[in-house]
């Protein structure tokens, strides 16, 4: 007899990946199979376990990627095969989401399941638009109605006459049938001047909100070319939007920013931009990987007692150096007599994680700044180790050798071009994004980006070019491109600050 698995019916929330519950995230981390819908933010899939299978089943209004019957059979099959299945549904699984239908089918087939509630779009989306659904002065009653009833029903279950007496009405999936909804509400006594709002792609950076009244919302919807998915809100509470709206006031709200940095390094950068309201599009142009051989580093690790200085020029240098250090079962105490120099605060922080302190950090975060400080230090006959990328500038090693140091440069990681960088679909998708800002954080990101796109690419004609520093600027200049933004301190945090300054001035 086969072992039965389990199905988790999970509410993914309205779109913002930060609104998923901790329990839901834990289930995604252990699931063997993840079955998700059209309205689920795919960023939630990034934390799946490595070998999990992901199945997209659609459920977009007007499209039928997979019928409900086939979805039901899919859940049952994988559960019977002993799999842990995460059924990921937009919003909450039981709020107009067919979660109840799936739960009933699982129950009838004796499949073990759990329901994990999600943050529902019916209240989260209005809150992101600055619209409270209730207020003790003007709204004490609330109704949530589907804007898309089952077309197979012979008659509507919506009590249109009663709705006119309710303070606030929220129609989910109400865009497609907007005209019919407005017509029936006015016919049944709702005042045409009742404040009304439509919100599309709520809680996403591309959220759009339009407001009006019940009798002009159709015209405004057409003028703004509003399309699903969206929520319709009718009631006096819509008037509070101008005072309460907060999401759309974020300083980078609506700006589409292309990130060329490696995915594993870009998370903090992306999170900060998203928190400021930006929509980030990831297009990693480099991939960080170990060197083809550790032979040279292994030799140097055995001779650490003779090493006076180790210079780290990046967080990756620290990461890969110590990865190999501990793989060789070496003791951190062997470094206590060695001094460390780093370029940048982030590299310093990476070193601190190993309970080691930087003895030297330049004011200017590049090789030239470090060389200036070493000019006053006796390096004659001293052994200096520089663990770095395979492709990097030689100026630091050359200058230190002129100061009398015995410099050993060792490759501890390599920058490679990702395999999918030349994907025609990926390139086409990027061109269609209407990018506002392209960020470059190293010369490699520049060279690889312009190996795919032309410097005068029409799709990026009006883009702001944001570069992390002079060395990256030089790489841009070699392609005939000028940076619009360069921070005085060469960090991603400073790059964000400079971007904010740019938009504040304009």
Description of the molecule:
The protein has 506 residues and is of the alpha/beta class. Helix content is 32%, strand content 19%. The chain folds into 4 domains: 6-118, Cobalt-precorrin-4 Transmethylase, domain 1; 123-249, Methyltransferase, Cobalt-precorrin-4 Transmethylase, Domain 2 (2-Layer Sandwich); 256-286 and 418-505, Rossmann fold (3-Layer(aba) Sandwich), CATH 3.40.50; 289-416, 3-Layer(aba) Sandwich (Rossmann fold), CATH 3.40.50. It is built from 18 helices and 19 strands. The protein has a 5-stranded parallel sheet with strand order 3-2-4-1-5, with helices on both faces. Helix 5 links the parallel strand 6 (142-146) and strand 7. The radius of gyration is 28 Å and the shape is elongated. The relative contact order is 0.08.
Rounded radius of gyration (Å): 28 Å
Characterize the largest beta sheet: strand count, sense, and whether it forms a barrel: 5 strands, parallel
Indicate the overall shape: elongated
CATH top-level class of the largest domain: Alpha Beta
- Arithmetic mean pLDDT: 90
Work out the count of structural domains: 4
Oligomer: single chain
Q: What low-confidence regions span 5 or more consecutive residues with pLDDT below 50?
A: none
- Architecture of the largest domain in CATH? 3-Layer(aba) Sandwich
Strand content: 15-25%
| Amino- and carboxy-terminal Cα gap | 69 Å
Strand element count: 19
Helix vs. strand class: alpha/beta
> How many helical stretches?
18
Helix content: 25-40%
């Amino acid at each position: 007899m086969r072992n039965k698995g389990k199905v988790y019916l999970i509410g993914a929330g309205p779109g913002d990946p930060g609104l998923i519950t901790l329990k839901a995230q834990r289930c995604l981390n252990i699931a063997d199979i993840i079955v998700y819908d059209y309205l689920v933010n795919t960023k939630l899939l990034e934390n799946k376990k490595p070998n999990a299978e992901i199945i997209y089943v659609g459920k977009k209004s007007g499209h039928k990627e997979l019928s409900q019957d086939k979805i039901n059979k899919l859940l049952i099959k994988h559960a019977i095969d002993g799999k842990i299945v995460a059924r990921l549904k937009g919003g909450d699984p039981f709020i107009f989401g067919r979660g109840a239908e799936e739960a009933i089918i699982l129950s009838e087939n004796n499949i073990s399941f759990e329901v994990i509630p999600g943050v529902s779009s019916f209240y989260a989306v209005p809150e992101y638009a600055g619209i409270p659904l209730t207020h003790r002065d003007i709204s004490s009653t609330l109704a949530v109605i589907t804007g898309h009833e089952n077309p197979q029903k012979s008659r509507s279950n919506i009590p249109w006459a009663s709705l006119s007496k309710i303070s606030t009405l929220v129609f989910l999936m109400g865009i497609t049938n907007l005209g019919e909804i407005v017509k029936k509400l006015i016919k049944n006594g709702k005042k045409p001047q009742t404040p009304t709002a439509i919100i599309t792609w709520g809680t996403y950076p591309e959220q759009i909100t339009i407001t009006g009244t019940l009798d002009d919302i159709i015209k405004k919807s057409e003028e703004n070319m509003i399309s699903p998915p969206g929520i319709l809100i009718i009631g006096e509470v819509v008037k509070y939007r101008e005072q309460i709206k907060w999401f759309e006031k974020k300083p980078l709200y609506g700006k589409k920013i292309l990130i060329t940095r490696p995915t594993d390094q870009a998370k903090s950068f992306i999170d900060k931009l998203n928190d400021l309201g930006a929509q980030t599009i990831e297009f990693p142009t480099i991939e960080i990987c170990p060197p083809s051989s550790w032979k040279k580093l292994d030799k140097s690790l055995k001779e650490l007692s003779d090493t006076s200085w180790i210079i780290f020029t990046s967080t990756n240098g620290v990461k890969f150096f110590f990865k190999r250090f501990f793989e060789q079962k070496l003791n951190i105490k062997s470094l206590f007599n060695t001094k460390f120099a780093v370029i940048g605060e982030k590299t310093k922080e990476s070193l601190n994680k190993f309970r080691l302190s930087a003895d030297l950090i330049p004011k200017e975060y590049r090789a030239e700044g470090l060389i200036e400080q070493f000019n006053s230090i006796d390096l004659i006959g001293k052994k200096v180790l520089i663990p770095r990328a395979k492709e990097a500038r030689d100026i630091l090693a050359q200058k230190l050798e002129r100061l009398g140091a015995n410099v050993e440069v060792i490759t501890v990681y390599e920058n490679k071009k990702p395999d999918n960088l030349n994907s025609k679909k990926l390139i086409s998708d990027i061109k269609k994004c209407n990018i506002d800002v392209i960020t470059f954080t190293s010369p490699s990101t520049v060279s690889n980006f312009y190996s795919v796109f032309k410097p005068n690419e029409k799709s990026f004609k009006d883009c702001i070019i944001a570069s992390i520093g002079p060395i990256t600027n030089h790489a841009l200049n070699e392609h005939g491109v000028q940076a619009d933004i360069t921070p005085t301190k060469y960090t991603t945090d400073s790059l964000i600050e400079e971007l904010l300054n740019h938009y504040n001035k304009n």
